[in-house]
Amino acid sequence: MTDAASLLQPDRGQPATTIHLVDNNSYDAWLGVQPQRHRTALSAQRFAPSDHACAILPGDSPGEWCAVAAVKDIGTLSPWCLAKAAEQLPEGTYRLAKGEPGAAMLGWLAAQHRFDRYRKEDHRPGPRILVTREAARIEETVLIAEATMRVRDLVNTGAGDLGPAELEAEAADLARRHGGRITVTSGRDLEDGYPMIHAVGRAAAEGRQPRLIELEWGREDHPRVAIVGKGVCFDSGGLDIKPASGMRLMKKDMGGSAHALALAGLVMASRLPVRLHLLVPAVENAVAGNAFRPGDVLRTRKGLTVENTNTDAEGRLILGDALTKAGESGPELILDFATLTGAARVALGPDLPATFIRDETLAGQFQTAADAESDPIWRMPLWDGYDEMLKSDIADLVNAPEGGFAGAVTAALFLRRFVPRDTPWAHLDVFAWRPSAKPGRPKGGDAFGLRAAFRMLKDRYPAA
């Protein structure tokens, strides 16, 4: 993974190339005091002060130069306003001509991340290092950038190289690095305690058995926080098999677990005063003679029965057992991340995680954090009136109502059945994939709502 720490350094007066920041409001005044060589260079490069534009300007002598980068607002730098510059500028060390990069440090780091597991890049650009006097922000910015990069790497990895065992290894590595304790229940051992996880994953090949991965960390007397992530390492759709086009990106169906693992890592690395409980139900939804079937009635850890009306609505099944286990320890808060429904993408597109929160205080805290981090979420309704869509003729509920109406809402309502009634809970239905590139955010796996969730936890549980 990209070494983010090497790309952001304290400003100790070391030699660095200057970057001038301009926006639409300041550009004319700035241009008016520039030497003719700068104006000529800007004209030759057809520079305009539109967001993310970047140009190189000649210096006073051969070999000397500086750069100019356009941002939306030089008074309030966004996380991504320097990302294009970090992608385009030559290898070297840089500092801003005025002010400090602030939030833009994140985009500077994330823009230089490359997922190169499967290809050799002979001309990978050298590092672009940014120096800043905001030394106190460097460590946390690096942590968040590395968490984002980890989500990208996990989601981008092909399912042949990332199955339930590899997710277990990720959690074990986190536990080792931060002094946590890991527990894994797998294979036939799931049948009694976690029957829905077992049912969904039992058709997978040898070595890819289903499992519930749990990591616990922190002091017993701290508030208990559970983070749950959907870990469907590949989703064929099961016997309700997907068409080829629908299966193409299903390596990313473990994106919820990638978010949960990354967030847990941030919590532990930052030593937040919480008792962390990370739960990842990890399965492959495969097709075989022992695959669970449409019409099967599944038992659950909670004791409810579920009529399986669609084997391609498997994520909510495994989450149901994991959420039940999370609630048994009396947590003060439960968060879950899942690439759960296409309906959420139809409603909100790829950039906005559909967010369901039934506690108003938590909803306010989450929205405040999302705004502060420029990491948007969009709250959706847990509409009680649609609960009747989950009715079954033969069991306590179905997993996938007929008709397709309000698919993201009914999926969230299904999950709600497995969360203790009085426990604050947030469910993020994330896409975990960027279908087209933006500055600092390449096409492929990506994190959504991660920074907002971490900021919310920091604000809710401030370090001493």
UniProtKB/TrEMBL annotation:
Task: Report whether Manganese shows up as a keyword of the record.
Answer: yes
**Pfam families listed in its UniProt record:** Peptidase_M17 (PF00883), Peptidase_M17_N_1 (PF21337)
Has the keyword Phosphoprotein been applied to this entry?
A: no
Record's keyword terms, sorted: Aminopeptidase, Hydrolase, Manganese, Protease
Q: InterPro entries in the record, alphabetically?
A: Leucine_aapep/pepB, Macro_dom-like, Peptidase_M17_C, Peptidase_M17_N_1
* PROSITE patterns listed in its UniProt record: CYTOSOL_AP
What does the record give under GO molecular function?
A: aminopeptidase activity
Task: Identify the residues that the record assigns to the Cytosol aminopeptidase domain, covering every copy.
Answer: 310-317
Similarity section: Belongs to the peptidase M17 family.
- State the name under which the record lists this protein: Leucyl aminopeptidase family protein
Q: What species was this sequence derived from?
A: Stakelama saccharophila
Q: Top-down, what is the taxonomic lineage of the species of origin?
A: Bacteria, Pseudomonadati, Pseudomonadota, Alphaproteobacteria, Sphingomonadales
